[in-house]
Design goal:
Largest sheet: 5 strands, parallel
Mean pLDDT: 93
Shape: globular
Strand content: 15-25%
Strand order of the largest sheet: 2-1-3-6-7
Order of helices and strands: EHEHHEEEHEHEHHH
Number of strands: 7
Radius of gyration: 17 Å
Low-confidence stretches: none
Helix content: 40-55%
Number of helices: 8
Distance between the termini: 52 Å
Length: about 240
């Protein structure tokens, strides 16, 4: 049996639900799963006020998180680390940014990592930045599972903001903000497959469609993530 450590952050509870679903088959198969919740030296309410929500924009985009809170990291050999979190403003969420900037980040060196990302439909830019940072720390990123909201990208742009500042998942005429039951069942299936393959080498899920990509939005996401958002964040920060 394998030893798995989950480093996780969940703001609204959505990422926690996905993580619970993903690791359940691993536990049932007899693997040891240890979960470590990341934290930062600030409070993130849910739902946010509009001022709080948009106020996070410059620090998140410019990768200037608050300090990470120390966590208790397991000692000894670890077979797999599941890095679970979300994407904020086309960047890794601030608690993950803080951990990777902090003194405990060296714990990841040499460890095999699977990223478990829960977010709206535009995630590629944030995920690429995330794994670049993980690899710079010496982690071996071998797999990814990305879980996104149902509905088209244009809808999730509005509904995700509305949900974040009101706590309400439904906007008239648009898909509900949720990870639907069918998607959660797919996540459970990925966990079950992983449970069977943990003794393997290298990527364990590369033959499965574990990360839905919207190719039609890849260029806009790159443009905003690499050019527009950094420029706006720099101006915003300068004027604050």
């Amino acid at each position: 049996m394998s030893r798995i450590v989950v480093l996780e952050w969940s703001h609204s509870g959505q990422s926690r639900e996905v993580t619970d679903t993903f690791v359940e088959p691993l536990i049932l198969a007899g693997h040891t799963v240890e979960r470590v919740k990341l934290g930062v030296d600030t409070t993130y309410p849910f739902p946010w006020t509009p001022v709080q929500f948009f106020g996070l924009f410059p620090e998140t985009v410019l990768m200037r998180p608050p300090p990470a809170l120390p966590v208790e990291l397991p000692e000894g050999e670890v077979d797999l680390v599941i890095a679970s979190g979300s994407i904020w403003y086309l960047r890794p969420c601030q608690p993950w940014q803080a951990f990777m900037d902090g003194p405990q980040a060296s714990w990841l060196a040499g460890k095999r990592v699977l990223t478990l990302t829960t977010c709206r439909n535009m995630w590629i830019n944030g995920w690429n930045i995330w794994i670049d940072r993980l690899r710079a720390l010496g982690a071996q990123v071998v797999d990814r599972v990305t879980v996104t909201h149902s509905g088209p990208v244009f809808a999730s742009f509005y509904t995700t903001v509305y949900w974040s500042v009101t706590g309400k998942r439904e906007v008239a005429g648009l898909p509900k903000v949720e990870i639907d039951a069918a998607t959660l069942e797919r996540v459970r299936g990925f966990g079950a497959t992983l449970a069977e393959r943990l003794s393997g080498e290298g990527s364990l899920l590369s033959d499965l469609d574990t990360a839905p990509i919207s190719h039609a939005h890849a260029f806009p996401e790159l443009l905003f993530g690499r050019v527009v958002f950094p420029a706006l964040a720099t101006v915003y920060a300068a004027l604050s």
